[in-house]
């Protein structure tokens, strides 16, 4: 099964999971192709709806599998679907997964809403069996139980006290006395459900002998019942008759001869959706939208007749209002099940509120009478009992049944009235709770809270919210990993969301007005607070404590509680995670335990053992073990004294207020009473104990390690966008897109497939009801960053209201002008995600062939593959006029496009939800920061998949995956946290590599110093340390780096406006080759040859334009990947530079993937186990770069072949053991003073402002606040520049020069070693040097400039740059070159002779033979030297010979550069003996020749005029400076008098023949480009040094 099948199954399964029917009929386990949703509509074939075939035709395979690139006659031959993927839109092997999931061999309900088990995994209530089964609004027990009203002679309800009629086992009694036969269907259903959940359900009710006047009853659960009639108005029986007439009769027909139909309202076999659609009840639901309760809140849209409850257990039934009852609820035939804990006083309060509201209401409800006998008048009950005694267990059971009967009647009374909201609140039901019931999440607590945000952040709630709205109490719910606050409980509108993360804490403050003079006492700075982990060892058993209390102590405690007497010497107290009071090392018994065991009105004797069970709603672990009690008796005397002092200070802790804090905000929450506050704290602790986002994760990431993940890499834009368009077509609920740039008119499939255009896809899905949320980077100016996000936003939001777009950042609000949102992610239905380096914008779609021309005249079908603005070359001119997307920016006949090489991936399962959580966190943060004209909702993070759910749906793989990111204060609002987990992953992966590191990146700037600015990311340090360790250990190790030849910015490198290009090239040279901090210099200091361990490459391509003009262009590498040992891969959007790696600058996202499916491989000639994912990706990339036709190769199945191991049997790759697996205590005791709060807020504000100002830029500016403007310390700058032009000798001494001047280039080494060998060369190898291949009379002289400088002469060349016959050492005086370095000048002499020779002569390095199957071992000499390096050198020499391409190792000064430009001018002229006016070739991006794109009237000049002008500080409008510095005048203005001679037609034909020898796109990255100018300090222009380096590094 391919990943394409898996991706289809993922989205289909997610739809089936989210919309599965809740009927009681057994699920269909048969496998099928279609997925049914809740209203039984079949899923549509999206490809068919678009009129496309489900099996597109793939490009024809090459029969020979040649490694060469066969340039197609038309570019459209390479635009079909990816060859290596399958494109079926249905998954034939994926079963229809039922909602019911097996866990440990037992079925699990669709929604587990609370985990009320202790740490031991047992139930809280194992002592008594379940007292009753679930009961609904139409079920009444006919047994005269305690509290069941029976009408007396006066018509009033009277409560029965026949206690002796009850048995200890009501279940057995019910089974014995149930009357009437039941249908086979119901019996089978009850049998299955009873066997599956024996401790939880009892499906038969007790029925004693009925009176003759009672109607006959059957044993179905929803039987017909009528409340007492009222003679003054139509009785409820008449109303129920009308409602019953509205309900559908859609139960199964009774077989002939069977029992008579049951008298029921709705059978369990009726689906709730069918009931609403087919019956008249749907019209009744309209009232839920219009009716409001007394608080003007909308009705909670819940069908209370579908609600079934039971009060299963209770605690402390004889302790008056302290009695706690466990209420189990079930809604919609088990679609949702949850547990609520309520005290007896909560029932009384509920009844009192209803009675009071009913008294003042014109429409009075027939409320049931509260069961007075449920109150614990135990002595009275004992006196009235028949036998003179009653057991406590009997009373507890009867008390629960009475309250259960009361709730059933109350539901019946208010179920269709607005006052039902109060009952819904009592049972913690809200509209969101019902909506999320099938999402797989959990709700731990819900209710009203008042929330206040503290700190200088954006606040809590929308930015547009008024002050009064922020002070209102709102409905809150604690769910699996967040707190959601709703505007109203009856609506789905979210006020805001508080996410749990690794900084999540719960803080209980001290009440200041209770401290008195102690408020002035300073708090010790080194105070440590005891959390739940510490308190578990110090807590005492309640029974032991009660026995130790004397009568005097009790009186003293009560008096001190009455008069608020405090022990002045005892420290502050707070409540821990277990609810216990504590101080500075002081521990006492839990405050709420003491109130339960010694409550007023109940005489508590120390001889009576207290139950070891606590209230589960206010205690994280309500079970007490004897071991804890025994441990408590062995404490020292000092600790006992401290406990005694702490007992009198529990009231200092706030009873209503507590704080929750995460990395983004701090909230102050106000509860109505202490019990509610403890319930909220316990719920938060339960949620924190179960969520993975609170734990510390590997690499300090926000997301944990995920196992058994299905993932697939996608190379280049064609494959990525094809798969993404397919996923979008299958979307049913949501689409999340986060991009640096987005083009609405982007074609996802080509050519001319307009129905797959991005805006058309999003509009189509939005009209189908899919919610589309998009976040775009908001550029500072469209002039500096021409992405025009405003146009994209307006264009997309005008398509449909379901498409919502936010732009970020708000520059002036956050003070962020330099940094950008750089993520590229798309999440579909929170199930399948796409990520990597590919933006959904113009210029990114490309094929593995990386074609550089797209002329319709050269195409057989006259089509354009890259229409309009999509045909781009940022090296010539960046994008402009994006509001005209179909207008070309260049003349396609004269300007080639710049190919785009990129890498992304798609993933199914839990990592997709981690990415969705990251998107939700960013989206909600922006809503707090920005005002919008259109209402945009807050989003909720998706829940975790249930255990076994992905396995049951077949959506698992063999990859271990973790999402990492770079995020900080400005990008995510985390004032005290900067996450740079991507850099941590790079460092650890390189450190633990065994043999090979393969890197492709847009930039490579790390671990160096540039213009006295330190580059702090440590990736370069990790590479150097690993190389030194490999040298010491003698193990083979290599690093292969691919970066673009030049940054993708406009203008040639000598242009006055090319500052960005020069600064980035300078930073990369300082990282790799030049300066004492460069990798080359540090390795040579250790007597190592850098080329033996690390090499740098680039990509380039060529083509023929109209009329046969030859052209070339760099292939821009935009990928951001790192592959280690073919086992681990890092794929994302993060570049290797300061902006991406630090965390507080650009925001980034990346994935760390390790495939556990290990296959046999080879490394350094020895067997080596490799991971399937990383190995196949590395092979795919290297094959593409060497010209192997990857589309024509045999399709490989990259999915696992072996059985996937369970997660608990796998060993996670966590070398530093950073991943936490257990729970973490989040509750803290914290003493806070107003002064401390003020200082903390001020500190947070300062940190936020510093980060907003841009860190290094702001800190650098702060050093010169007191200096006059324009004052520069020139001597300090000169010293730092001089330091950067030093290197190390082999003795470790600093000396002038660059390491790149001494270390031979890869080309020089290949020529010296005579590579490739004859066995691996396609042509005859060179036996001798170049002059031996020619006649003595035709030996060319070396190529020199007009003033005699030798091409390729390194910086500080010995004796004279005109000779270049020795390694550079004249200035340093250290002649420590090895043999290879000494022979390098001879090799450079040969290269200069070849440069001066005719085109028809052979190049020094012949083409190697490329075997498509010979890529297994990347570091063996047979591949690394003889194929990979040799191929790169071979291609480099061809491009140099034909085009004189820039950059190049033979260009070391601006004089050399000028000579190469002169060669470009010859290209621009027609052939000498040709009658065609067309030029021989075109190289518009690498030169500034006459009539070129940068001259007056050229392409760039015309585009520049269409741009906006910007305003200077003095208010004047100016255009970009076009003035030339002296260097520009020298290089551009001075031309030969007669101009360069044009090429002949023969030379042009020889050029084309030579270009056909190119193998792939791989070339050598030059290490000596303009090295001499860099040494002289002339590489950067004076204006370049005035720009802030952090913008570019």
Automatic annotation (TrEMBL):
Residue ranges of domain PLD phosphodiesterase in the record: 817-844, 1113-1140
Region (Disordered): 1-239, 566-653, 1202-1231, 1314-1385, 1468-1549
CDD domains: PLDc_vPLD1_2_yPLD_like_1, PLDc_vPLD1_2_yPLD_like_2, PX_domain
Family affiliation: Belongs to the phospholipase D family.
Biased composition (Low complexity): 53-63, 84-99, 596-607
Superkingdom of the organism of origin: Eukaryota
Domain PX stretches: 303-440
GO biological process: intracellular signal transduction; phosphatidic acid biosynthetic process; phospholipid catabolic process
InterPro entries recorded: PH_domain, PLD-like_dom, PLipase_D/transphosphatidylase, PLipase_D_euk, PLipase_D_fam, PX_dom, PX_dom_sf
Organism for this UniProt entry: Rhizopogon vinicolor AM-OR11-026
Short name of one Pfam family: PLDc_2
Name recorded for this polypeptide: Phospholipase
Keywords annotated in UniProt: Hydrolase, Lipid degradation, Lipid metabolism, Repeat
Example of a GO MF term: phospholipase D activity
EC number of the protein: 3.1.4.4
UniProt xrefs under Gene3D superfamilies: Endonuclease Chain A (3.30.870.10), Phox-like domain (3.30.1520.10)
Extent of Basic and acidic residues compositional bias: 28-48, 151-175, 193-233, 631-653, 1218-1231, 1325-1346, 1502-1511
Catalysed reactions, semicolon-separated: a 1,2-diacyl-sn-glycero-3-phosphocholine + H2O = a 1,2-diacyl-sn-glycero-3-phosphate + choline + H(+)
Domain PH, residue spans: 637-689
Polar residues biased stretches: 13-25, 129-146, 568-585, 1512-1526
């Amino acid at each position: 099964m391919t990943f394409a099948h898996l991706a289809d199954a993922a989205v289909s399964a997610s739809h089936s999971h989210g919309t599965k029917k809740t009927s009681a009929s057994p699920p269909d386990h048969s496998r099928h192709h279609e997925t049914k949703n809740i209203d039984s509509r079949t899923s549509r074939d999206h490809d068919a709806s678009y009129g496309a075939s489900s099996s597109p035709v793939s490009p024809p395979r090459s029969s020979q599998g040649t490694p060469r690139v066969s340039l197609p006659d038309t570019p459209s031959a390479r635009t079909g679907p990816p060859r290596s993927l399958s494109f079926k839109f249905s998954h034939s092997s994926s079963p229809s997964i039922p909602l019911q999931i097996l866990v440990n061999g037992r079925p699990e309900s669709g929604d587990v809403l609370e985990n009320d088990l202790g740490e031991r995994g047992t139930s809280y209530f194992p002592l008594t069996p379940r007292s009753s089964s679930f009961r609904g609004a139409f079920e009444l027990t006919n047994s005269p139980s305690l509290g069941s009203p029976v009408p007396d002679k006066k018509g009033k309800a009277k409560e029965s006290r026949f206690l002796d009629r009850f048995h200890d086992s009501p279940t057995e009694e019910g089974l014995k006395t149930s009357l009437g036969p039941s249908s086979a269907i119901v019996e089978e259903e009850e049998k299955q459900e009873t066997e599956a959940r024996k401790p939880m359900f009892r499906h038969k009710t007790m029925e004693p002998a009925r009176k003759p006047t009672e109607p006959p009853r059957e044993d179905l659960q929803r039987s017909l019942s009528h409340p007492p009639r009222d003679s003054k108005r139509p009785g409820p029986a008449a109303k129920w008759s009308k409602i019953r007439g509205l309900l559908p009769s859609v139960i199964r027909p009774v077989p002939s001869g069977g029992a008579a139909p049951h008298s029921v309202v709705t059978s369990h076999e009726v689906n709730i959706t069918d009931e609403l659609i087919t019956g008249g009840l749907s019209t009744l639901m309209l009232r839920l939208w219009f009716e409001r309760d007394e608080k003007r809140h909308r009705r909670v849209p819940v069908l209370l007749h579908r609600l079934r409850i039971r009060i299963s257990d209770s605690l402390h039934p004889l302790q008056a209002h302290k009695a706690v009852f466990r209420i189990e609820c079930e809604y919609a035939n088990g679609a949702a099940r949850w547990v609520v804990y309520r005290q007896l006083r909560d029932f009384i309060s509920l009844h009192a509120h209803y009675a009071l509201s009913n008294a003042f209401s014109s429409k009075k409800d027939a409320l049931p009478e509260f069961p007075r006998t449920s109150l614990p008048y135990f002595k009275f009950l004992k006196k009235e009992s028949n036998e003179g005694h009653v057991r406590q267990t009997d009373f507890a059971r009867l008390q629960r049944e009475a309250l259960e009967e009361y709730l059933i009647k109350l539901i019946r009374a208010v179920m269709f009235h607005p006052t039902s909201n109060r009952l819904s609140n009592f049972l913690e039901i809200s509209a969101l709770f019902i909506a999320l019931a099938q999402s797989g999440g959990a709700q731990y607590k819900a209710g009203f809270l008042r929330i206040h945000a503290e700190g200088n952040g954006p606040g809590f709630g929308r930015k547009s919210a008024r002050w009064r709205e922020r002070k209102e109490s709102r409905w809150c719910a604690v769910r699996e990993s967040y707190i959601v606050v709703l505007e109203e409980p009856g609506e789905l509108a979210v006020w805001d969301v508080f996410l749990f993360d690794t900084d999540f804490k719960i803080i209980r403050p001290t009440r200041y007005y209770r401290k008195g003079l102690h408020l002035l006492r300073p708090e010790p700075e080194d105070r440590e607070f005891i959390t739940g982990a510490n308190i578990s060892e110090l807590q005492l058993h309640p029974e032991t404590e009660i026995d130790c209390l004397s009568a005097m102590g009790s009186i003293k405690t009560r008096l001190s509680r009455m008069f608020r007497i405090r022990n002045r010497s005892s420290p502050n107290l707070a409540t821990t995670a277990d609810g216990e009071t504590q101080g500075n090392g002081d521990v006492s018994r839990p405050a709420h335990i003491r109130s339960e065991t010694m409550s007023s009105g109940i005489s508590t004797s120390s001889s009576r053992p207290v139950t070891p069970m606590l209230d589960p709603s206010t205690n994280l672990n309500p079970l007490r073990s004897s071991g804890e009690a025994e441990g408590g008796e062995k404490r020292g005397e000092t600790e006992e004294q401290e406990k005694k002092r702490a007992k009198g200070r529990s009231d200092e802790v706030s009873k209503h207020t507590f704080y929750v804090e995460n990395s983004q905000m701090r909230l102050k929450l106000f509860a109505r009473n202490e019990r509610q506050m403890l319930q909220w704290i316990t719920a938060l602790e339960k949620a924190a104990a179960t969520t993975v986002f609170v734990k510390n994760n590997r690499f300090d990431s926000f997301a944990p390690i995920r196992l058994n993940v299905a993932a697939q890499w996608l190379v280049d834009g064609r494959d990525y966008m094809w798969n993404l368009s397919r996923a979008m077509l299958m979307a049913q609920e949501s689409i999340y897109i986060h991009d640096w740039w987005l083009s609405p008119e982007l074609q996802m499939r080509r050519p001319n497939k307009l129905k797959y255009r991005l805006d058309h896809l999003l509009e189509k899905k939005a009209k189908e009801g899919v919610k589309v949320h998009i976040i775009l980077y908001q550029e500072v100016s469209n002039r500096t960053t021409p992405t025009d996000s405003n146009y994209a936003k307006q264009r997309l939001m005008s398509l449909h209201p379901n498409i919502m777009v936010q732009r970020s950042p708000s520059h002036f609000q956050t003070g962020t002008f330099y940094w950008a949102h750089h993520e590229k992610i798309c999440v579909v239905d929170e199930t399948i995600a796409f990520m990597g380096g590919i933006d959904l914008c113009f210029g990114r779609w490309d094929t593995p062939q990386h074609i550089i021309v797209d002329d319709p005249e050269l195409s057989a079908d006259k089509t354009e593959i890259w229409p309009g603005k999509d045909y781009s070359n940022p090296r010539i001119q960046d994008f402009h006029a994006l509001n005209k997307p179909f207008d070309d920016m260049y003349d396609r006949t004269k300007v080639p496009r710049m190919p785009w090489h990129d890498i992304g991936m798609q993933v199914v399962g839990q990592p997709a939800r981690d990415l969705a959580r990251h998107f939700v966190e960013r989206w909600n943060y922006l809503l707090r920061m920005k005002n919008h004209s259109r209402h945009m909702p807050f989003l909720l993070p998706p829940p975790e998949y249930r255990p076994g759910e992905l396995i049951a749906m077949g959506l698992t793989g063999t990859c271990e995956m973790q999402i990492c990111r770079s995020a900080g204060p400005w990008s995510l609002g985390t004032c005290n946290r900067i996450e740079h987990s991507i850099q941590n992953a790079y460092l650890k992966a390189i450190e633990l590599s065994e043999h090979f590191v393969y890197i492709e990146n847009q930039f490579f700037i790390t671990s160096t110093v540039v213009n006295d600015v330190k580059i702090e990311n440590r990736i370069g340090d990790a590479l150097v340390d690993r190389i030194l360790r490999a040298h010491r250990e003698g193990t083979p190790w290599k690093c292969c780096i691919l970066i673009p030849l030049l940054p993708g910015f406009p203008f040639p490198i000598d242009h006055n406006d090319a500052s960005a290009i020069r600064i980035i090239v300078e930073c990369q040279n300082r990282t790799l080759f030049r300066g004492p901090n460069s990798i080359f210099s540090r390795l040579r200091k250790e007597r190592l040859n850098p080329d033996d361990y690390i090499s740098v490459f680039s990509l380039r391509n060529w083509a023929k334009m109209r009329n046969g003009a030859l052209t070339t262009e760099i292939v821009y590498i935009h990928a951001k990947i790192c592959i280690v040992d073919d086992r681990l891969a890092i794929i994302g959007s993060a570049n290797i530079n300061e902006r991406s790696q630090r965390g507080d600058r650009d925001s980034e996202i990346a994935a760390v993937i390790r495939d556990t499916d290990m296959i046999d491989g080879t490394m350094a000639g020895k067997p080596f186990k490799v991971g399937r994912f990383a190995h196949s990706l590395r092979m795919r990339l290297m094959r593409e770069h060497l010209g192997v036709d990857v589309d024509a190769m045999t399709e490989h199945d990259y999915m696992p072949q072996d059985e996937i191991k369970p997660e608990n049997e796998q060993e996670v790759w966590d070398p530093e053991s950073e991943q936490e697996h257990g729970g973490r205590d989040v509750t803290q005791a914290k003493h806070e003073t107003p002064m401390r709060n003020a200082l903390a807020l001020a500190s947070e504000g300062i940190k936020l402002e510093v980060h907003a100002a841009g860190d290094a830029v702001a800190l650098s500016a702060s050093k010169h606040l007191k200096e006059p403007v324009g004052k520069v310390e020139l001597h300090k700058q000169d010293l730092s520049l001089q330091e950067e032009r030093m290197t190390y000798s082999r003795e470790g001494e600093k000396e002038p020069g660059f390491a790149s001047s001494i270390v031979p280039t890869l080309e020089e080494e290949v020529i010296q070693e005579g590579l490739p060998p004859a066995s691996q060369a396609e042509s005859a190898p060179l036996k001798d040097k170049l002059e031996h291949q020619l006649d003595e009379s035709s030996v060319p002289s070396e190529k020199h400039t007009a003033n005699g400088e030798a091409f390729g002469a390194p910086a500080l060349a010995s004796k004279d740059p005109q000779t270049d016959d020795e390694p550079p050492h004249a200035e340093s005086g250290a002649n420590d070159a090895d043999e290879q370095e000494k022979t390098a000048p001879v090799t450079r002499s040969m290269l200069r002779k070849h440069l001066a020779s005719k085109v028809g002569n052979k190049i020094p390095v012949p083409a190697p033979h490329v075997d498509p199957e010979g890529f297994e071992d990347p570091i063996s000499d047979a591949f690394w030297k003889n194929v990979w390096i040799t191929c790169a050198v071979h291609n480099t020499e061809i491009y140099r010979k034909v085009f004189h391409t820039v950059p190049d190792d033979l260009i070391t000064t601006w004089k050399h550069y000028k000579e190469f430009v002169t060669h470009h001018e010859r290209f621009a002229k027609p052939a000498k003996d040709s009658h065609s006016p067309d030029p021989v070739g075109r190289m518009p991006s690498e030169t500034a020749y006459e009539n070129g794109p940068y001259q007056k009237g050229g392409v760039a000049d015309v585009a520049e005029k269409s741009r906006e002008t910007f305003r200077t500080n003095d208010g004047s409008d100016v255009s970009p400076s076009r003035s030339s510095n002296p260097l520009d005048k020298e290089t551009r203005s001075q031309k030969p008098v007669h101009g360069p001679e044009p090429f002949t037609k023969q030379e042009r034909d020889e050029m084309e023949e030579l270009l056909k020898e190119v193998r792939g796109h791989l070339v050598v990255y030059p290490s000596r480009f303009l090295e001499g100018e860099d040494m002289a300090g002339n590489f950067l222009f004076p204006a370049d040094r005035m720009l802030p380096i952090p913008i570019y590094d």
